[in-house]
Amino acid sequence: MKKQLVISTSIDLVRIVPEKIVYIASDGNYSTLVQTDNEVRMLSYQLGQIEKMISSQLGSEGNIFIRIGKSLIINSSYIYYINVPKQKLTLSDVASFNHSVTASKEALKQLKELLEKEVK
């Protein structure tokens, strides 16, 4: 069975396979998790706490996730388009979903450079 990210709160518990997570965005003391089926979940965890959950629960399978600046964790498998000057990042599977998010120019520049190194 594939590893799943288990997120538990005082009232509920959800198990999500990593491939179903498109991105997680910071929202103050909460985070918003967006899935490939366009389901959106509000989580009562800060991004740093979720980052630790990914690392401890998923191990090397968690390496598909990249922290972008202070406000985003993205699934690198879905990076489709990066525009540094416009601060735009599009995450898509090119078939069923397409999400555009904003990030700092510096964070996007670093992400772009990281991806360029991977293809060389």
From TrEMBL:
<dbReference type="Pfam" id="PF04397">
    <property type="entry name" value="LytTR"/>
</dbReference>
<protein>
    <submittedName>
        <fullName>LytTR family transcriptional regulator DNA-binding domain-containing protein</fullName>
    </submittedName>
</protein>
<feature type="domain" description="HTH LytTR-type">
    <location>
        <begin position="11"/>
        <end position="116"/>
    </location>
</feature>
<dbReference type="InterPro" id="IPR007492">
    <property type="entry name" value="LytTR_DNA-bd_dom"/>
</dbReference>
<dbReference type="GO" id="GO:0003677">
    <property type="term" value="F:DNA binding"/>
</dbReference>
<keyword id="KW-0238">DNA-binding</keyword>
